[in-house]
Amino acid sequence: MDTEGNKIKKFLEAPKFAVCGASSNRHKYGNKVLRCYLQNNRQAVPINPNEGEVEGLITYPSLKDLPEAIESVSIITPPAVTEKVVDDAIKSGVKHLWMQPGAESRSAIERAESAGLNVIYGGACVLVVLGYHEF
Fold first, then answer.
1. The pairing of beta strand 118-120 with beta strand 16-20
2. Against a cut of 0.90, is the pTM above it?
3. What is the CATH number of the domain that holds 115?
4. Per residue in 26-51, is it b (16+ CB within 10 Å) or e — as a string?
5. Which domain does 101 fall in, by range?
6. How far is it, in rounded angstroms, from Cα 84 to Cα 47?
7. Of 25, 27, 30, 61, which Cα lies nearest the Cα of 126?
8. Looking at the domain assignment, is residue 64 inside a domain?
């Protein structure tokens, strides 16, 4: 079994990231995670059915609506929404999921792992791993 460090390394090797739960509210973690990717010169796509644009980027309602495949997805949603995101991720061919603290759902984790996805949860936050700076 992969260590958390190896799982994170594989996750971060993706050329582009989706952020499920992205928010235009700069105080919410869904916005901070998106900005963290951008601060680290990584391409990121915001996902939220209630937002049209976040940080100047077109926001898609769900993973199923993306015009291209995404390998790695950060999830910053309530656990009940995380379960739907995982279903969409499996159907969309996502390889890596990072459930940020508070987004975890035991059934979502089990479904994703059963489908063969690399799942990160219950530990590090992407903001800490990549380094996020508020400004």
1. unpaired
2. yes
3. 3.40.50.720
4. eeebbbbbbbbbeeeeeebbbbbeeb
5. 4-130
6. 13
7. 30
8. yes
| Structural domain contains residue 111 | yes
Residue 14: name the closest of 87, 72, 57, 76 by CA. 72
Q: What is the pLDDT of residues 59-93, one digit of tens each?
A: 999 999 999 999 999 999 999 999 999 999 999 99
Tokens of 135: 């400004």
**Alpha-carbon gap, residue 92 to 63, rounded angstroms:** 7
**Is residue 88 in some structural domain?**
yes
Q: Summarize pLDDT for 95-131 with one digit per residue, the tens.
A: 999 999 999 999 999 999 999 999 999 988 999 999 8
Number of domains, the chain = 1
3-state SS assignment for residue 7? helix
